[in-house]
Amino acid sequence: MTMLDRMRRHKGWLKWSLALVVLAFVIFYIPSFLGTPTAVGVGTVGAAPTEVIAEVEGRDVTAGQFLQRYNAQMQAYRNAYGPSLNDQILKQLGIDQQILQQMIDEQAAVIEAERQGLTVSDDELAQRIFAMPGLQENGRFVGEQRYELILRSQVPPLTKAAFEENLRRGLVIDKLRAALTDWMTASDAEIDREFTRRNEKVKLEVVALTADAFRSQVTVTDADVATYFDSRKETYRVGEQRKVKMLVVDRQQALTRVIIPAGEVQRYYNANLPQYQTPEQIRASHILLNTAGKDEAAVRKQAEDLLAQIKAGGDFAALATKFSEDPGSKANGGDLDYFGRGRMVPEFENAAFALEIGQTSDLVKSQFGFHIIKLTDKKAAVTRPLAEVQQQIEEQLKQQRGDQQITARANELAARIRTPADLDTVGKEAGLTTSESDFFGREDPVPGLGVAPQVAATAFQLADGAVSGSVASPNGPVFITVTGKREPYVPTLDQVKDRVREDLIRSRATELTQQRAAAIATSLRSASNFAAAAKAQGFEASETALITRESALPNIGASAKVDEVAFSLPAGSVSEPIATETGTVIVRVVERDEVTPDELRQGREAFREQFLGERRAKFFTAYLSKAKERMAIQINQPVITRMMAATL
User: What gap in Å lies between CA 410 and CA 248, rounded to an integer?
Assistant: First the structure.
């Protein structure tokens, strides 16, 4: 299984496991509704932080908000998967679209909460703030001055008003979710059944006959292709299509004419200096011994013994790995990486920032327990000089100015374009030329523009003889009129011959896997050595570890069909041939690991919370999807495309 497969399969797990680590971790992370602060400014060459990338009922989602969350998610993936995670894999995961959809959903949820009359009072907001561990010292709120200092120390800095507004939005969404889903329950029988289904395991020997391995044995003639096509013509039916004439206000051409004076770059730099500043940071390792539910004196004694070992020359990292109870850092020898002020609980922060490089602290007591801290590095506060970021700022301002000019020009043209004929005449007067696309479907790229969903949608909405207003596209604002319509049709064989040939080859290769699997199944079932019998037939048997359902199998990937059969068989049994999307599989159940009554009893209540959380999340998502159908949602894909091109 490739890394991409693992990440796709475990995206939900990664999100929640990271969240749990943060909750258990000693670092206090400001839970900004906009996302996790990052160590770089949120502006990029591709888009200014204030540029709007989406609107929900007229409420903006900005590039800056998006990039805060995007950068945090990227860092989470990189931390989890290490240096083997490359930009190509990240792009294939489509994280940008996932995050954009999350932010649209959040805007929609706030709007729906307001429609339901839900609000968050000032008292509720204050109680939530006062209860945050990172805003407490000795069990009491740190006070207004330190509260604002902590917010300002985030990267980029947060204002009190922005933080509290974001927190209020998050709380009102929580209220909506609770109002809609808190009534949901699950019976003990349902919980036990699902817990068992998810946790029972099997170890398998797998013989996979893949269609790709049999392709070379397949020969097809033109007559075969024609017969195959005639028997399933509807499979190749093409949906409704449109052809358009278009007048594009080309964005790239407009940008070549934009000049940004040096003085304007300087003014922008001065006004947005926090974007280019990195506060003082330190890197430290620590050993945490929890005191929750324990004899504090005994824990202190254990911590003192560890400290004595360290003072005597003991290996800090080795001791942290063995004894630390911080799940987020113990595997890394206690390393916390770099952090700035306001990111730790106060006791920890004060002790860590007072150390010299290489120095180890005495015991530090916090609400989490006893810490031993070792400072490993310091970074002074840094402001990137103008010379270093001048080109970035200039390009950013150029993009903004260019967009303003393009929008103004599109508005001027919109006032003059009233009929399809105006596309040519008005365009010529403006120094622009029209072009005509080929036919395209509702979900297809628009020939000449690429992926332009708003243009495609407009083309299918326009009345005969009408001309559109300005429509966003990757190339810039575009005006269109429909010049051709094509009703759904079944293409001729010549139009889809290559596709039909490929489908036929794959179909016959799959049939060969089924025939071959049927031929060897009897010998595999009767063999005393499954792997040896498979090898005698020319196939390799792969053995899995003990696996749960939905695990990826060698040369197959995850298969619900294989799961259904494998988990129904007793140990030692060999399956009948199982058809999968990639070919045919025969499995032998080597071992079964059943869920014991003790495991069920111990895990039942924790699983109940997980199961109900999943059920409630599914219901809430479905409800929100219906709610969004009533809302006006606009996505500025050109800005997103430009922004993402500059991000990875």
Answer: 9
